[in-house]
Amino acid sequence: MKLYHCKDARSLRALWTLEEMGLDYELVNMEFPPRLTQPGYLDINSMGTVPTLVDGTVTLTESSAMCQYLAEKYGPTELGLDVSDPQYGEYLNWLYRSDATLTFPQTLVLRYTRLEPEERRVPQVVADYTQWYYSRLRSVEMALEGRDYLLGDRFTVADIAVGYAVFLGVSLGLDEKYKPNTTAYLARLMARPAFQRARAK
């Protein structure tokens, strides 16, 4: 199994999951953006995006899907829920909300504050999508009331997926307006040995 990774990119979700599960894998560290810095990468992932996970004949390019795939293929594991579990629907909803709802607005903030040349940066886009992110983050704050994790006292790949989105906000300076439950949640996640190992790779 091989994971193509850029430091602190969405590939951290898959890398963190691999570390939590203790699976064997090969890590290919790349400079961002890999479509420009990694020769031959477009032959592996035609979109040129990161991450890419190759497991035998299976190739995945969506980080939250990787989390679910690893938990289901290489389980059973406490990180994943079976379809018969009463919280399965809630679990899946968080897993996919992590990227479509919580990471997406931050990618626009990142693009228009750091990645685009100065003359192409658009402060209004940054302001609008920063507010979008905060408004969506309220669901996390509310879900964590009286809970350590999104599903209560059990840590799952949904926490890895959402936790990455919350962690990304730190690099963008968005954590200054995090509410107490979200701040405490992020601290718990970042204290996990598997998270620390993944970040050190």
Automatic annotation (TrEMBL):
A family per Pfam: GST_C
Domain of life: Bacteria
InterPro entries found in the cross-reference section: Glutathione-S-Trfase_C-like (IPR010987), Glutathione-S-Trfase_C_sf (IPR036282), Glutathione_S-Trfase (IPR040079), Glutathione_S-Trfase_N (IPR004045), GST_C (IPR004046), Thioredoxin-like_sf (IPR036249)
Domain named GST C-terminal: residues: 84-201
Residue ranges occupied by any GST N-terminal domain in the UniProt entry: 1-78
Xref: SUPFAM superfamilies: GST C-terminal domain-like, Thioredoxin-like
Spans traversing the lipid bilayer: none
Family matches, as PROSITE patterns: GST_CTER, GST_NTER
Cited PANTHER family: GLUTATHIONE S-TRANSFERASE FAMILY PROTEIN, GLUTATHIONE S-TRANSFERASE-RELATED
Stated name of the protein: Glutathione S-transferase family protein
